[in-house]
User: Which sequence fits this backbone?
């Protein structure tokens, strides 16, 4: 089979058809800053610098099947109530609360000092999540910086899509009310709320959902987005029972995913932690609507068995193995995933790289996929 | 059969309102606070076992720990006036999320389970510098150090902490356990810890085995 462009290859995988080879798309983020010896602060705050660092890593590894744009800034300085927004949450950013070479870090304020109290559910019903917008950690200059992002991102995206024929990985977010509630209340408090005041939580989820969908679609348009990230981290079986997932999170995920797909967007379903027992539920997400990011805690081979005719899989090397592992281990794991999941298409090998991942290990993941993953 | 077996069952069922009402009722009736605590403690053991067997989930563990904590607040005055909780302390633990890392959900659960198992725990919170661990180990004459973290950078902080304990001549005095989702045997070796776990309940069992506590 003739070699395809990355766009053609990814499209085939998402359509669950076999292209020329298995896809490869590490989620590198701050790893690329480290490769260029660029500070995390510099990398995060300037989309052009982000792009420079990514392109350097892209070329050093001989190319990937997805490109990472400077969407990070819009996440950390977003005025929308997202999981990563410094206007809503206690994120400690490089060059501010942290050293310029340190990665952002969220103070979970897990139990005693949450941003949102149990009484605030009623306030959300009256005023929405914007009640929690705060200038405590970010300021007006950040709003101006954010406003300049849209025009900066457009040409960068065009370069990857049109010139290099590489699709962008994530351009914007589909916010979910469960995600932001878990962050604002702190995961511990939120888990208690699911038991102590389930009806109130459900009421807020229902009412907030449409507003967040509208905000997500507005941001996506501003970001010239094609792919939106949608997370569900706090509802895996590492946190709650399948019954709780089914009651609180699944309807929200389906509603948000359908809205994104109807508006013409592709989704990265970003499902960290252990989803193995919940995989059958994910058939309710729209078929062939994007790709399902799984980390090493989910059995990706079981995911192929359950969802192989429904969603493209994306993952699932253990991030720390790309810092502490060996080349032989990485090669073995990539081959295992390909042997178990590649048949029929719908597989993109990936890992969420830590900033201190080792080049030779990441390269082993990339090159093994490109050679062993040929159909 | 324990006189307060219903209390054990109520805790296992995570019936917060009824547990607290029953504890108050027992105290008002002049029942032994130590016996009430024993029944609740037995409930926590069952919840922990069910979590270990994947019948219960983290949210259940959090809820049960919360009910246990609220019950303890009710019991404490009576326990204090009757000579303590009657339980043998099986270890002095100093624990925290290591420098540079702010995650604490897993650590908090581990602390709740460890306290229930009989450890006297000094929880230093998040982003704890190595020197602070050292100071608190000395101050509390600790025999267990718990280091928590989920970022790969946390490994360096964990290792620095263990090195500092070694330099201070305290390494042989303490068992070091590390915890967090990404920790594994390799992390444990690189840090120089005695045990590791990515799961609070399994971690506690490893620690008890290490200390040869039943």
Assistant:
């Amino acid at each position: 089979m003739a070699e395809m462009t990355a766009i053609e290859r990814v499209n085939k995988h998402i359509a669950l058809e076999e292209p020329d080879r298995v896809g490869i798309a590490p989620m590198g983020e701050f790893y690329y800053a480290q490769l260029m010896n660029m500070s995390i602060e510099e990398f995060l705050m300037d989309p052009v610098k982000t792009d420079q660092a990514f392109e350097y890593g892209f070329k050093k590894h001989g190319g990937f099947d997805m490109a990472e744009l400077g969407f990070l800034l819009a996440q950390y300085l977003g005025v929308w109530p997202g999981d990563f927004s410094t206007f809503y949450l206690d994120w400690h950013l490089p060059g501010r609360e942290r050293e310029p070479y340190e990665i952002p870090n969220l103070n979970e304020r897990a139990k005693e000092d949450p941003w949102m109290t149990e009484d605030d559910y009623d306030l959300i019903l009256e005023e929405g999540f914007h009640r929690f917008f705060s200038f405590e950690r970010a300021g007006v200059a950040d709003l101006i910086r954010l406003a300049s992002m849209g025009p900066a991102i457009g040409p960068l995206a065009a370069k990857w899509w049109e010139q290099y024929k590489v699709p962008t990985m994530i351009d914007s977010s589909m916010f979910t009310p469960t995600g932001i509630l878990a962050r604002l209340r702190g995961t511990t408090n939120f888990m208690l709320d699911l038991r102590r005041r389930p009806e109130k939580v459900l009421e807020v989820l229902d009412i907030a959902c449409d507003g967040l969908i509208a905000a997500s679609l507005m941001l996506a348009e501003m970001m010239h987005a094609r792919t939106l990230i949608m997370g569900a981290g706090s509802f895996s079986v590492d946190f709650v029972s399948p019954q709780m997932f089914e009651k609180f999170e699944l309807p929200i995920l389906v509603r948000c995913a359908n809205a994104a797909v109807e508006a013409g967007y592709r989704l990265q379903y970003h499902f960290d932690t252990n989803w193995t027992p919940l995989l059958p539920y994910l058939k309710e997400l729209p078929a062939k609507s994007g790709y399902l990011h799984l980390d090493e805690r989910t059995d990706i081979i079981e995911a192929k068995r359950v969802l192989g005719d429904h969603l493209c899989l994306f993952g699932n090397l253990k991030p720390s193995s790309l810092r502490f592992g060996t080349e032989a281990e990485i090669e073995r794991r990539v081959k295992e995933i390909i042997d178990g999941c590649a048949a029929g298409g719908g597989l993109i090998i990936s890992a969420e790289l830590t900033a201190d991942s080792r080049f030779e290990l990441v390269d082993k993941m990339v090159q093994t996929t490109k050679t062993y993953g040929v159909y | 059969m324990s006189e307060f077996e219903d209390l054990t069952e109520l805790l296992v069922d995570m019936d917060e309102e009824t547990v607290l009402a029953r504890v108050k009722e027992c105290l008002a009736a002049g029942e032994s606070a130590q016996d009430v605590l024993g029944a609740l403690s037995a409930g926590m053991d069952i919840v922990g076992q069910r979590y270990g067997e994947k019948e219960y989930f983290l949210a259940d563990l959090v809820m049960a720990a919360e009910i246990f904590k609220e019950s303890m607040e009710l019991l404490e005055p009576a326990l204090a006036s009757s000579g303590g909780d009657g339980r043998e302390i099986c270890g002095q633990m100093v624990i925290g999320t290591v420098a540079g890392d702010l995650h604490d959900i897993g650590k908090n659960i581990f602390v709740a389970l460890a306290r229930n198992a009989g450890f006297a725990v000094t929880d230093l919170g998040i982003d704890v510098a190595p020197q602070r661990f050292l100071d608190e180990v000395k101050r509390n004459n600790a025999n267990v150090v718990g280091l928590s973290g989920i970022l790969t950078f946390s490994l360096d902080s964990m290792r620095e902490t263990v090195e500092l304990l070694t330099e201070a001549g305290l390494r042989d005095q303490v068992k070091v356990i590390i915890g967090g989702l990404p920790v594994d045997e390799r992390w444990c070796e690189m840090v120089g810890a005695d045990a590791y776990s990515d799961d609070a309940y399994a971690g506690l069992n490893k620690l008890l085995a290490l200390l040869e506590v039943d």
In short: The domain at 5-81 of chain B is CATH 1.10.1240.10 (Methyltransferase, Methionine Synthase (B12-binding Domains); Chain A, domain 1). Chain B has two domains: 5-81, 91-210. The beta strands of chain B are 91-97, 119-123, 144-148, 175-179, 195-197.
